[in-house]
Design brief:
about 40% helix, 5-stranded mixed beta sheet, single chain, 5 strands, alpha+beta
């Protein structure tokens, strides 16, 4: 409730749909997504921002939904695991995770996938990580396993599917780079 005793209203755009919610200002994005909107694909893991199970994209940037207030996302586009697939089918990363068995128990998979989508976009923008040798060599390029692991280090998998996750991300990055090279050559 606010100082007048009423519950504030927030408008959230989630996976392309508008949601008007009457929620307290201290409600996290995670709880708004799961408990109010009913999108349970985003998982509640540690609820402290340490495991990454709740990772979603807010205006294309990966965030821990358990540490983000729903009110902070008003006017921004929120994409959850339910929003990654398109009318044409699964997102390329979802297909790659399946091919490379990068999901095992599946609990962390939604956060891993959202994080990987955000990570690939960061790479396209030339954003460095702690292990980036030279930004110019990694901008719009492929990433080694060490680079992928560093960039995904905020997402934990207790089953140990890291090998499949890394292979899936590397495959999609290579496919995207092949497409970029083909477009540039035309």
């Amino acid at each position: 409730m606010d100082s007048t005793g009423s519950t504030p209203t927030v408008s959230l755009r989630v996976n392309g749909a508008e949601h008007r919610l009457n929620i307290e200002s201290r409600v996290t994005l995670l709880d708004a997504l799961r408990e109010t909107i009913g999108l349970t694909g985003t998982k509640k893991g540690c609820n402290q921002g340490a495991c990454g199970a709740c990772t979603v994209l807010v205006d294309g940037v990966r965030v821990n939904a358990c540490l983000t207030l729903a009110m902070q996302c008003e006017g921004l586009e929120v994409v959850t695991i339910e929003g990654l697939a398109s009318v044409g089918g699964l997102h390329p990363l979802q297909r790659a995770f399946i091919r490379h068995d990068g999901l095992q128990c599946g609990y962390c998979t939604p956060g891993q996938l959202c994080s990987a989508v955000g990570m690939i976009d960061e790479c396209r923008q030339g954003m460095p990580s702690a292990v980036t040798g030279t930004v110019a060599t990694n901008a719009h390029g492929t990433l080694c396993d060490l680079e992928i692991k560093e960039r995904m280090s905020g997402n934990l998998c207790r089953c140990g599917a890291y090998g499949g996750i890394t292979a899936a991300i590397a495959e999609v990055m290579a496919q995207e780079m092949a497409g970029v090279r083909a477009e540039t050559a035309s």
